[in-house]
Amino acid sequence: MANIGLRKPFFAPFKSTGSGYDAPAALGKAVNVKVSINKAEGELYGDDALDESDSEFSSATIDLGVTTVPIEFHQSMFGHTVTEQETTYNVNDEAKEGGFAIIGVEKVDGKRKFVANFFPRTKFSEPDSEYDTKSGSISYKTPSLSGTVKPDSTGDWKKDKICDTEADALSWINTQFGVTSG
Question: From start to end residue, where is composition biased (Polar residues) (predicted)?
Fold first, then answer.
């Protein structure tokens, strides 16, 4: 398999009452993503040799580059106050946990596959801002978000499904968010 593309980052905060997610929304367009797994590891030595070793999931870090962070995410993702086109950032604002999904494009045995990735419990931190003055060429600066993935109440921290079409991948992602077609 070879990773050849990336599409459609979605985020949906947890509902404020009850369980489940609010409606998922597209978080700009995907530029890049890296998921790094953090492990708890331990070794037990006995009689001058390694006797036991364990390595298990602790958390994961998601570094996500997107084309833009739409204004509504400043409220739904980071807890800021948003009115029309104005955002107020307060020191007491708290980022919200929710579900995150993205579609990876792979080539397997010469065929294109769409891998839907779903992280049921993710919390992103505020992206840094960077601007440059125009010079002889145009330079694009895009937001980069960093998130932490934790296991949900069942211990699941990620689900993925290999699909033949992008539409099938999107449909599966919607099901993970609890969206039913109607």
Answer: 134-147
In tens, the pLDDT along 77-135 reads 999 999 988 999 999 999 999 999 999 999 988 899 999 999 999 999 988 888 888 88
Please state, in angstroms and rounded to a whole number, the distance separating the CA atoms of residues 64 and 29: 10
**pTM for the whole thing?**
0.89
Q: Which one-letter amino acid corresponds to residue 105?
A: V
| Contact criterion met (CB below 8 Å) for 119 and 157 | yes
First to last CA, the chain: 35
Burial tier of 2 (Cβ tally within 10 Å: 0-12, 13-18, 19+): exposed
Residue tagged 């992103």 (tokens): 124
pLDDT at 130: 82
Three-point CA angle 123, 2, 39, nearest 5°: 40
Extents of the domains making up the chain: 2-176
Return d(Cα 8, Cα 57) in angstroms, integer.
26
Q: Which residues pair with 65 in a beta bridge?
A: 32, 144
Judge whether 30 and 66 are in contact, CB under 8 Å: yes
Say how far apart CA 12 and CA 63 lie, in whole Å.
17
